[in-house]
Amino acid sequence: MNDHSPISTGCANSPVLKQRGQREVFCGLTGIIWLHRKMQDAFFLVVGSRTCAHLLQSAAGVMIFAEPRFGTAILEEKDLAGLADAHTELDREVARLLSRRPDIKQLFLVGSCPSEVIKLDLARAAERMTQEYAPNVRVLNFSGSGIETTFTQGEDACLASMVPVLPKTDERELLLVGALPDVVEDQAVSLLTEMGVGPIRTLPASRAADQYGIGENTVFALLQPFLGDTHAELERRGARHIPAPFPFGEQGTTAWLRAIALEFGVDEETFERVTAAPRARARKAIDAQAKELRGKSIFFFPDSQLEVPLARFLTTECGMTPLEIGTPYLHAGLVGPDLALIPEGPTISEGQDVDLQLDRAREARADITVCGLGLANPLEAEGLTTKWAIELVFTPVHFYEQAGDLAGLFSRPIRRREVLDL
Questions:
Q1: Is 371 annotated among the ligand-binding residues?
Q2: How far, in Å, CA of 238 to CA of 200, rounded?
Q3: Could you tell me the CATH number of the domain that includes residue 188?
Q4: Is 158 flagged in the annotation as binding?
């Protein structure tokens, strides 16, 4: 008998509730906290206020005896009023920094506000300094403004700024795009290498000397769903994206690896040999944490842009029911494969009008609500169980060995609520 029933596309074609209004977001400068640890010879000089300096210092928790790879060029009132030559002052601060720190090979000038606010064209300054300090130091710029971006877009802006200056190559290479902890990145590279995939490059690389090229024979796989600008810059250079669900959980990781394996002609027997054991470990670890999650509902406020692939993981691998999946930006070219795996039903929302979304969250009363720090405590006071979205960015959650930890981030708040209700 022939089955002519339509193939389900999940939420891929679901209507999207688009809202524009007041939003609750964390500052885009936050990305520096994980990028400066990943890029060993880079320095991030934030052109901003004392508030920006305090944010980075407190958020990063830098010990007083450490030599951090970020700092702040403080904008005083006279700078903002245009009474001082900000370019001259910035040149002096950069010269002082580079003379003291000869280990710096990449210097990022990071705007904390739009250029019309800080009265300084950092793109022009970066071009001028690149000519002055080349070839020893490469100077780039990007905006980390919380006015313009969500907090994960700081990484996107940083990586996008790096792509145009990478050399051209005709070599066929795989580029893994997105900053992950070294131990997690090593797991991904090890699995792919064991399948025979290669050569493999990463963006960002640990050091500027680990140079690689970009060209029409470059294929790239994204490790994070918030890299829309970097994706566009890579395609502009001729590189080709390998679309796939993001590597969260056993199923997501397997689908991500399989898409790359198919691109490089890896046979099914090799794929199964390499992935069988870690897949089994991941399934076992997820099952141990998912007992509290099955049948539970979840509501996502837009925050990190991880919302869609996380909803896919919690739905297909942990048995949860998403009521609303909110995300700051819905980039179908990036998260489309994940959307297609989420069963129809939840509201898909892009952007935010925080008051209206709070009303929906209160009415839904999901078993767990994922939101930013500013909303979590008030919602907890109203009896809702919450999960901080920012913790999902700072915790290693990608690939097989972290799958159980990812599920645990959601099961623990539910267990805590059950204990408090006893």
A1: no
A2: 17
A3: 3.40.50.1980
A4: no
